[in-house]
Amino acid sequence: xxxxxxxxxxxxxxxxxxxxxxxxxxxxxxxxxxxxxxxxxxxxxxxxxxxxxxxxxxxxxxxxxxxxxxxxxxxxxxxxxxxxxxxxxxxxxxxxxxxxxxxxxxxxxxxxxxxxxxxxxxxxxxxxxxxxxxxxxxxxxxxxxxxxxxxxxxxxxxxxxxxxxxxxxxxxxxxxxxxxxxxxxxxxxxxxxxxxxxxxxxxxxxxxxxxxxxxxxxxxxxxxxxxxxxxxxxxxxxxxxxxxxxxxxxxxxxxxxxxxxxxxxxxxxxxxxxxxxxxxxxxxxxxxxxxxxxxxxxxxxxxxxxxxxxxxxxxxxxxxxxxx
Length: 324
Ligand code: G3P
Ligand code: CA
Fold this sequence. Notes:
Elements: E1 11-15, H1 27-35, E2 40-42, E3 44-47, E4 53-55, E5 78-82, E6 85-89, H2 97-100, H3 128-142, E7 147-148, E8 151-152, H4 155-160, H5 166-173, E9 182-184, H6 188-196, E10 201-205, H7 212-216, H8 223-226, H9 229-235, E11 241-245, H10 264-270, E12 274-280, H11 295-305, E13 309-312, H12 315-322
Helix pairs in contact: 1-3, 11-12
The chain binds SN-glycerol-3-phosphate and calcium ion (CA).
């Protein structure tokens, strides 16, 4: 396997837990990910009305919870603009943690993962503290350090409504002795975090669009601009890694066939940034044309390219390829 500039094998980050096998962002999903050998578990974080961080990919929670079946919350259904997009449903910031705890999780993509439907309605929505407690407990029990890789979701929005994520995030993390990366698709909250913590930070970069704080600030730069050598050097002033859409490392043609790698991994390493790529999934629906029926092949290609980490919905597959 290609040695990376960190001289370590790539880390396996369980994307929303072992979300290929259990509904995402549940303690069951995180625990299974740990048992399957993941190095890190990844909670996306939003916040409740009473300031508790919980694991959800969006603050509008109808896609991944049973909230639509709770008639007592029907009056809280509403429409908001979140990061420039109109969303209708139920929003975490309108609920207390006690109310959130009456809900259960459900599979986000039942048409692709019908085997997970059996778990709908079973698992509650976890707080970030419960995820930390799980990682600490499993670390002690299994004799290895389980890393935690939280992402701040919609940080500018939550700051604007008076429920900033970052202070609570650092409070939750201050007592733990486990590996941590903190990630964000926005720039300004990572820069602020870099002034308040020595924990490693990850600038997330999508293959389209721009950070939403750039939209708010009328900053004309896009994610593509952050990937220039100048942009990477600027990121390295406040972050230790970039977390990138895998197509930015190896683009695909219109048929999904892999093209030649870009220079991004070389450029990022030259700027002293680790490179973590997302998202790796077993299903053909998500795989490049070259890897149909063979998810192992996709990991091999990206590991050989020199990535320092991968976000995977199936961490057992990622771990197995890493150990080959
Ligand atoms: O956080 C990076 C990776 O998880 C991809 O983003 O949209 O799945 O949170 P998302
Ligand atoms: Ca994420």
